[in-house]
Write a structure and sequence with these properties.
globular; 11 helices; 7-stranded mixed β-sheet; 30 strands
């Protein structure tokens, strides 16, 4: 499934690892997920409750399915996302939550019992007789809980902790974050640029977009050179900012040695970063659309399909279909077609949607069914009241984008709803001293993200008394972002909302009927993640 001439991986340095005892080949720069897809492996796990077959959905830290156990014995680390874990020679990877094997899981019998395991079943079932709770029910529940397993042995490593101080903390090193860091640093502020990925660039690593008249990845390289040349800039890759606290304090976790073979180095480092100002450039997460049987391996985010192609040189399928309510999916189709892959069709929920090329196009249509136990083989679509089948092994879904507003909610502030993007955006002054910019603020064109980043970085430095210096914004794509809301397809069958915990639209409707209408109560009652 590798595509010649595509990707940022180093094909001169092959890497060999094992998955469930099977030897798999990858390359330096691969993640476990991209290497598995590149080898044609689509079945990677089982869901928590029903043990349904699961495949890779995303290309980042929002992955719900591909949770793996890395290593063995004292070095064992369960619940590691395959989309984040970098390859190294000798890496041992195992799937979880299955017995005796991933392909033949005895506990898949739970799927046949699903009518009896609806939302809140445990609250209604494990109540009588009362004496059974401690002796029978609780031990069974505890034994069933969790996906991965700890080794039970003392870990040989000891993670580190450290402190850092800066004038401006920039969270996220995509195009917005790079511009924010450069603007703040040129004004004279001490800057920390934290990025959870193993390299800076954000979505530009996965796109064919041009910035300043050059390929996006080349522009990223030029920006990295400018920032590393500045003595007042510290770039922290593999570092996830996880919390915002009083007094401008932020928590961050750095993956120090998890991307290489076990050694004496600490695997992780917990940072406390004291920042006078912060700029949130965390980007946005693509959402899918709930439709019947939307959980089969091979059904993925459209942005993830594009990322695996452009960043890792991997095709997620041989005949790809797209299901969308916005124009972003057509960019995925264009990239796939340019790489010589077959576009089996584009299904667009919007009645006025127009095709951008000569591939099969279905406006005002929706997916109402899928087939393929261990991997997608066919979808059924509905248009104008009639249905038809399409043979496909990959369905790329784009339901729009949700700004990553998580950090802005850590002090009790609620995000603000915007109808035009059908998503929440951060509330102003949600965190004292922090400003959101770019996709994290609901701005989705590359040009607008670059402009917002430069302004936010300059504003942060100016607020601290530094003199703002001119930072030219490069020319880039400036297409409008528009969509028609599409959340769930009204058709018989189970439509999954939480792939990991097996929560469906029916579960949420049941919770609402039983008066668990608050989102906090609904999540508890349905086990929605």
């Amino acid at each position: 499934m590798r595509i010649d001439g595509k990707g940022l991986i180093d094909r001169d340095h092959p890497v060999r690892f094992t998955f469930d005892g099977q030897t798999v080949d990858g390359y330096r720069g691969d993640t476990v997920a991209s290497a598995l897809l590149g080898s044609g492996i689509r079945l990677v796990g089982r869901s928590f409750k029903y043990h349904r077959p699961r495949g890779i959905v995303t290309a980042g830290s929002d992955e719900p399915n591909a949770l793996m156990t890395i290593g063995r014995g004292r070095h064992q680390r369960p619940n590691t996302r395959a989309t984040v874990q970098e390859l190294f020679d000798g890496l041992e990877v195992r799937s979880q939550n299955r017995w005796p094997s991933l392909r033949h899981d005895v506990m898949a019998i739970n799927d046949a019992l699903s009518p009896f395991l609806a939302a809140g079943f445990y609250y209604k079932t494990f109540m009588w007789p009362r004496a059974f709770w401690e002796r029978v029910y609780e031990p069974i529940i505890r034994r069933a809980a969790g996906l991965g397993r700890l080794s039970g042995q003392d870990a040989p490593d000891s993670s580190d902790r450290a402190f850092a101080h800066c004038d401006v903390l920039v969270i996220g090193a995509g195009p917005t974050g790079l511009m924010a860091a450069l603007a703040a640093a040129r004004a004279g502020a001490d800057v920390i640029l934290a990025e959870e990925d193993n390299r800076v660039g954000g979505r530009l690593l996965a796109e064919t977009t041009e910035v300043a008249g050059m390929p996006g990845i080349q522009w990223v390289g030029s920006m990295l050179a400018k920032l590393t040349a500045l003595p007042n800039v510290r770039i922290m890759e593999r570092t996830t900012v996880t919390g915002a606290y009083d007094g401008g304090t932020y928590a961050a976790v750095e993956r120090v040695a998890l991307h290489r073979a076990p050694s004496d180095a600490p695997p992780e480092c917990f940072w406390r970063i004291a920042a006078k100002r912060a700029v949130l450039c965390s980007g946005a997460l693509e959402r899918t659309i709930a439709f019947p049987e939307n959980d089969r391996p091979g059904i993925m985010q459209a942005s993830a399909v594009r990322a695996y192609l452009n960043r890792w040189g991997v095709s997620a399928g041989k005949a790809v279909t797209l299901f969308t309510n916005n124009d972003a999916a057509q960019q995925t189709a264009s990239d796939l077609a340019a790489a010589g892959l077959q576009i089996a069709g584009i299904i667009d929920t919007r009645p006025d949607a127009k095709p951008q090329d000569d591939w099969p196009f279905f406006a005002e249509a929706e997916v109402v069914g899928t087939k393929g136990r261990h991997g997608l083989t066919q979808i059924t679509i509905r248009q104008n009241g009639t249905t038809r089948d399409i043979q496909t092994d990959c369905l790329a879904v784009s339901g729009g984008w949700n700004p990553a507003v998580h950090l802005t909610c850590h002090m009790g502030a609620r995000p603000t709803w915007r109808d035009d993007i059908a998503a929440f955006v951060p509330t102003d002054d949600a965190i004292p001293g922090l400003a959101a910019a770019g996709a994290a603020n609901g701005t989705f064109s590359t040009a607008a993200c670059l402009s917002e980043g430069a302004k936010a970085g300059g504003d942060a430095a100016k607020a601290l008394g530094f003199k703002r210096k001119r930072t030219d914004t490069p020319k880039a794509e400036d297409d409008d972002y528009s969509l028609t809301s599409a959340w769930a397809v009204d058709s018989p069958g189970r439509a999954w909302l939480d792939l990991q915990n097996d929560v469906t639209t029916k579960d949420v409707k049941l919770a609402a009927r039983e008066n668990y209408r608050s989102v906090e109560h609904m999540k508890r009652y349905t086990t929605q993640g």
